[in-house]
Amino acid sequence: MEHYQVIVVGGGFSGTMAAIAAARDGAKVLLIEKSGALGGAAVLNHVLPFMEYHFFRENGEVVPLNRGLLKEFVDRLRENNGILANDSTFNEEYLKVALDDMTEKYGVDVLFHTTLIGANRNGDKLTSIEVFNIEGKSTLTADLFIDATGDAMLTLLSGEPFKIGREPDEKCQPMTLCFRLGKVDVDKFYSEDFATVNEIWKAKLANGDFINPRENILSFIHTTDDVLHLNSTRVNLSPVSAKERSDAEKIARKQMIELTNFLREYAPSCKNATLLSSATEIGVRESRMIDGVYTLTGEDITSCRKFEDAIAAGNYGVDIHSPDGTGTLRIHIPKGEFYTIPYRCLLPKGLTNMLVVGRCISSTHEAQSAYRVMTILASVGEGAGIAAAIALNDGVAVQNVDREKLRKAIDGRDLVEGYPLS
Ligand SMILES: Cc1cc2nc3c(=O)[nH]c(=O)nc-3n(C[C@H](O)[C@H](O)[C@H](O)COP(=O)(O)OP(=O)(O)OC[C@H]3O[C@@H](n4cnc5c(N)ncnc54)[C@H](O)[C@@H]3O)c2cc1C
Questions:
Q1: Which of 373, 375, 379 to probe ligand 1 with, by most ligand atoms within 8 A of CB?
Q2: How much is the pTM?
Q3: 256 — pLDDT class (breaks 50, 70, 90)
Q4: Are residues 319 and 390 in the same domain?
Q5: Please, what sign has the CA dihedral across residues 11, 15, 17, 20?
Q6: Which of 89, 234, 261, 407 is the most exposed place for a label (fewest CB within 10 A)?
Q7: From CA 284, how far away is CA 235, in angstroms rounded?
């Protein structure tokens, strides 16, 4: 296999945008993905919609906060009726195609059905990775690697340190199997049934009637009128135990049937509902996070801290689905405010040619609950791709990327609406 300048492992939002951004700046990039499509959780876990990422300017104007490649992506979805007018509710079939088109446009080589299974390092450098696909096992080499696997698999395999979940007990936010019901009168569900069924749900939960510990019903509209999207199963097992992650799939499917039957019985708008689909894999909100050069904290998020080495921004607040079962903690970011994410959170301590992007960057449990949404991670990925290209051009370790150059490059790409990050 030919040598690449950058290999990105994982084709979720963060990895795909990192790959595109590095290729746009001239790097020869390979993106490997274990499934058959780009999009990560949006595709594999049925995750929908883009959580709120709009921003209120002082003059009252409302604009998307995250821009850059995300804007190009949303524009593509809009052209194909792949997203509703709210710029948030997307159809993942168009999403997959838009990401294929963008990787093709910017010249990223993509290998689907290719799973990372090993990493080889020499001191502070990753020299190659081992992958498995239809051709068997092979070794891939690159100058720089990006871990975009969500679960920090490249970090794990390369022997770099990481943390798991919250301190001190390492419990993570729960896993959720998203699913969809068809033949629902969705307008009626929200206007007439929603409040009532939530009250009934709470009473029955208190009575011990459910295996699902979630405190209420979390649902969203879909691009198809009569489809209701449910993000409402909840399994509090360990996402980093192979056995528990497997058990979680089965428990969540039982919860799906439980919730479907409940809605059919108690919500008139759902009386004819059909179970359309569940995600290919249960969704993991949180698992490993690298122990990087800087650890982003909940206070950095809630105080809307602006870092000198910011590579992305976000305005989605703390959103912790209880690692213990029932309850969700929300702390909102004030309108017209945002926080930034420093480049140092992407830097491992012991490797000079690896960056980490996505939900597994260096942070606490509290901070991760905020920046983990797809729009923000798209910007984090784009920032990483820009940094990777600078590191390669200048022949420096990722830790030594010239911060002034990085800031200018990031601001030049218009990642944050109307506001340079510096
Ligand atoms: C149930 C649930 C609901 C959520 N709700 C929302 C929401 O409403 N809105 C929102 O914006 N965000 C939501 N999120 C958060 C968001 O979807 C994720 O945090 C985000 O998509 C993570 O992006 P990522 O790029 O880090 O990882 P992922 O999207 O998980 O991508 C990682 C990719 O790496 C690949 N991969 C993993 N291991 C390997 C390997 N060994 N070899 C090759 N490839 C590998 C995977 O197949 C995957 O494609 C939700 C998450 C969950 C789980």
A1: 373
A2: 0.97
A3: very high
A4: yes
A5: negative
A6: 261
A7: 10
- Rounded to 10 degrees, what is the CA torsion of 380, 386, 388, 389? 170
Does the residue 419 lie in any domain?
Answer: no
- Rounded Cα distance between 185 and 165, Å, is 38
Ligand 1 atom closest to Cα of residue 283: 53
Distance CA 180, CA 353 (A): 41
Choice from 372, 376, 379 to test ligand 1 binding pocket (greatest atom count within 8 A of CB)? 372
For β-strands 136-147 and 354-356, DSSP reports them as: parallel
Domain limits at 210? Answer: 175-283
Q: What is the pLDDT of residues 110-157, one digit of tens each?
A: 999 999 999 999 999 999 999 999 999 999 999 999 999 999 999 999
Contact between residue 186 and residue 272 where contact means Cβ atoms under 8 Å apart: no
Query: On the CB side of 117, how many CA atoms lie within 13 Å of its CA?
Result: 11
Residue 365 pLDDT class (50, 70, 90 cuts): very high
